[in-house]
Each structure stands twice: as C-alpha cells, then as structure tokens.
Design a protein that fits this description.
Rossmann fold, about 40% helix, globular
Length: about 240
C-alpha cells in the first residue's frame, strides 16, 4: 500500500497528514497513507533513499530540509532549480526529482485569497514580507511573477520590502522579488507595518490558504491525481473559494 510522508525536525505539529488524507479519500485512493515523520538533518539522506527504493511514494519537506535536499536529489524541476529549495521529492525512473509547490501556493494566496492579481488592488502602498526562510523565498518569487503579470496588463505593483534578521539573506530573497524590491533590517519592520496600517492596508491572510494550495500541488505530484482542494481545505477548517 502506498505511503507518503512529511519530513521535518522538529515536527511537533503539522496539518499535512489531514490535508493529504482528505485528498486521498476524495480521489478514492484506498490504502494510501500519509505520515508525519520527524526526521533529523542527519537522517534526511536515508529517508530520501526510501523514496528512491519505492518504500515511500514521495515526501514533502519542511524546516530544516528544503535547502539540504537540493544536493540529495538527481533532478530539480522549476522553480526549485531557481530557488534552490525543495518541498516535494518523488521518484521517477529510479531518480529522485525535487520540486517546489510553495510558489504555486503563494501565487494562489496572493492572487485569489488577497486579491492582488487584478484591479481590486490599486498596486500602491507598502508591501512587506517578514522572514527569509523557505516559505518566504517562495512568496518573494511568487511576488515577482504576480508583479510581472500586473505590469503586462498595464497595472502597477508596489515593490516588495523583505525584512529579515540576517541582512545578507534578506538581500538574497529581495533579489527574487522583482524590480524595486529591497531588504530591510528586522528592527525596522515595525515602522513598515505601521506605514501599511496608516495607508489603510486591508489585505491580510494567514498561511493556511497557501498551505492548502501547496499541498494540493504536492498531492498531484506524489499520487498523480487531481486533488479536490475544497475537500482538503474542509479538513483543516478553511472555506475554499468555489471559483478556484
């Protein structure tokens, strides 16, 4: 019976099993199981070897494995090759393929959940990304794609400011976010948030929508089915927009 898993350390709480099992049930994949497997950094290579051997149908990766997996797979799909970050690993003809579905998840959250993909947003005002980890990197890359799409439609898009505790890392993430993006010191983030509030910022969302969207992409890669996103969202208490 096929088994997939999410690997991370520490892995004290994760919604991934609920999301993936809901997708399996909706698709009629009887016997499929999705596990949460706490995996230390030194255990990652052995866990990925299980994917290569077929003992695992595929895995998702969370902190701290997304960058480490780059050197352990045989092939990187886009945009994992650009980000050098992997959140999904699947076997293909005896090879390990690393993918990144976080970007697609971030694009959905920015466009559909926050409404930044069309004229509902006038494209002005401060845009701030807090953090420089794997998910933040995906959001920055997604922002660059969303901003380009807006410019192609004759719409404007405010440049993104990336605030991080490590200035060098913040600069790297900002470079993925498109023209005009810049890093900022973590200590200055409070002033940027205050500016957004003063400007009347109303677009806000937690990461649950992005989590569901990236998990749907991972289900498609691991199980080879078109996931029922509404069923997945319902499993974690989120109402999925019928239009998406």
């Amino acid at each position: 019976m096929p088994v997939a898993a999410v690997l991370g350390w520490p892995l004290t709480h994760t919604l991934s099993p609920a999301l993936h099992q809901a997708a399996y049930r909706a698709a009629g994949l009887e016997g499929w199981t999705y596990l949460a497997r706490p995996t230390r950094p030194e255990e990652l290579a052995a866990a990925l070897a299980e994917v290569r051997a077929g003992a695992l149908a595929g895995v998702n990766l969370t902190t701290p494995h997304k960058q480490a997996a780059v050197a352990l797979v045989d092939e990187l799909e886009r945009p994992a090759d650009r980000l050098l970050a992997v959140n999904t690993v699947v076997p293909r003809d005896g090879r390990l393929v690393g993918a990144n579905t976080d970007v697609a998840g971030a694009l959905w959250a920015l466009g559909s959940q926050l409404g930044l993909g069309d004229a509902r947003w006038d494209g002005t005002g401060p845009a701030l990304l807090l953090g420089t980890g794997g998910v933040a990197t995906a959001v920055a890359f997604a922002w660059s794609r969303l901003a380009k799409a807006r410019r192609d439609q004759g719409l404007t898009a405010a440049p993104l400011t990336v605030a991080g505790r490590d200035p060098e890392r913040a600069g790297l993430v900002a470079r993925l976010a498109g023209p005009g993006a810049r890093p900022a010191a973590w200590a200055g983030a409070a002033d940027l948030v205050a500016a957004a509030r003063a400007a009347g910022a109303a677009a806000a969302a937690d990461g649950l929508g992005m989590l569901c969207a990236q998990a749907a992409g991972a289900v498609a890669k691991i199980a080879g089915v078109r996931p029922d996103r509404a069923a997945m969202a319902a499993a974690v208490g989120l109402d999925w927009p019928r239009s998406t």
